[in-house]
Amino acid sequence: MKSYAAVDLGASSGRVMVGRVGPDSLELSEAHRFPNRPVRVPEGLRWDVLGLYAGVLDGLRAAGRVDSVGIDSWAVDYGLLDADGALLGNPVHYRDARTEGVAEKVWASVPPEELYAATGIQYAPFNTLYQLTAARSTAQLAAARRLLLIPDLLTYWLTGEQGTELTNASTTQLVDPRTRDWSYDVAARLGIDLELFAPLRRPGDPAGVLRAEVLEETGLRGPVPVTAVGSHDTASAVAAVPAVGERFAYICTGTWSLAGLELDEPVLTEESRAANFTNELGLDGTVRYLRNIMGLWLLQECVRAWGDPDLGELLREAAEVPALRSVVDAQAAAFLAPGRMPERIAEACRASGQPVPETRGEFTRCILDSLALAHRRAIGEAQRLADHPVDVVHIVGGGTRNALLCRLTADACGLPVVAGPTEAAALGNVLVQARAHGLVGDRAGMRRLIARTQPLTRYEPSGDAAAWRAAEARLAGAAP
User: Fold this and answer.
1) Which residues sit opposite 35 in a β-bridge?
2) DSSP category for residue 198
3) Could you tell me where the beta strands, DSSP code E, fall in 137-204?
4) Do residues 368 and 318 touch, judged by C-beta distance below 8 A?
5) Does the annotation mark 284 as catalytic?
6) Cα separation of 136 and 442, whole Å?
7) Total Cβ atoms within 10 A of residue 46
8) What are the tens digits of pLDDT across the range 420-445?
9) Any residues with CB less than 8 A from the CB of 33 and at least 6 apart, and which?
10) Is residue 251 predicted with pLDDT exceeding 90?
11) Degrees to nearest 5, angle at CA 291 with 456 and 33
């Protein structure tokens, strides 16, 4: 068996996991977990990337001897380096307000229909393309000589080597999903200098070795290689979906829900653009055809507003609330920013003429029903738009611990749900490293290994399918 360190950074926490992999074994343990706390400074919302890097070093020290390291994180955000390779300020958080109104400026040069046909990426106000447009006149961007996405920035600090991993690069809205290379025409029309980006890497490519200073600080004995993985955490998570065959949908749950299909080719139709589906790149050149849904962020923000009550108690109370009493659009931009989440959910229910939740249990049930309904809509539309029917839905990530959400998703979709693994991103990260070092086989073999070694729970659909159809119609009728 060999050991691999998976650095897995989420929007609210980071962790260094250690995966031990053998020909027919896969064990995962947590070496270190640390908070990811964005900081609001006078110029806006920023990531504390130095704190994250310190957490990574602490985690590698706790991990002990490993045969390789891989890093994955959330998408779209980046750090800028000057000509000496020094970081120019803390990276801007994707929830920062600087991209408000920027999309219209982009569309004046490249209309949204042309932008989607070229890149296949759904509209989201925080896409890297819009962030770079918002930063165009800043002194920081003028001084920049290199742009590194968050996992690539941390890899650079560990190794001194610069690269741009492809699965994460595809979320910038600057990559052509057909060629798996930069969309040079889009960049030129928007005045974005692609020379800012380091050369593209693919999952499994070597990304350098730990610097001597890192070895000294972590106590590791070199050489320790760093391997490019699916550095967008969703790419790593989808690689760890324990599916058999191709007729499956997946939902990667956490702060966001990413619901969709794994395809061989992108879907670039106008109907797909109008439905706001995205074509991000995955392992082995696959396409992650999915929709971004606000996810458990809605519940996380409510819990924060309520002073962090016990989540188990909230879920027990929610299970006693009548189903589908009130639902909101879990994709609505109104829920993107932090703060006042219970009030905003109440306002949405009031505006649509539905009962306004009053108790914490009612708010929780409203959120979970709304997420299950959003999962239903996304998976149903993805099958139709891609002409790709499915027989089962796999839920991976933190939401697998939420049995009520998993059960509601099975009921809403009318399909069996297989929940697990919970640490899907870390497992996908580990297995890409192991595959690069010859320990596991192809993508299907990776998935079989996960299915054999990780705990999974199956939920069969039940309940009233007509009630979900009615709730879907009610929500569609409430849309402006």
Assistant:
1) 13
2) P
3) 146-149, 164-165, 175-176, 181-182, 200-201
4) yes
5) no
6) 42
7) 17
8) 999 999 999 999 999 999 999 899 99
9) 13, 14, 15, 16
10) yes
11) 50
Helix (H, G, I), strand (E, B) or coil at 409: helix
Q: Which residues contact 335 (CB under 8 A, 6 or more apart)?
A: 294, 297, 298, 328, 341, 344, 345
- Indicate if the pLDDT at residue 279 is higher than 80: yes
The two tokens of residue 220 are 């590791």
First-residue to last-residue Cα distance in the chain = 56
Catalytic member of 67, 72, 233, 369: 233
User: Quick one: tokens of 221?
Assistant: 């004995």
Q: Torsion angle, CA of 239/241/244/248, rounded to 10 degrees?
A: -100
Give 432's contacts (C-beta < 8 A, 6+ positions apart): 70, 203, 204, 227, 229, 230, 236, 239, 283
Residue 37, sorted as left (phi over 0), alpha (psi -120 to 50) or beta, turns out to be beta
**95, 338 contact by CB (below 8 A):** yes
- CB atoms near residue 403 (< 10 Å): 14
pTM: 0.93
In what helix (H) or strand (E) does residue 417 lie, and over which residues does it extend?
A: strand 417-419
218: confidence class by pLDDT, cuts 50, 70, 90: very high
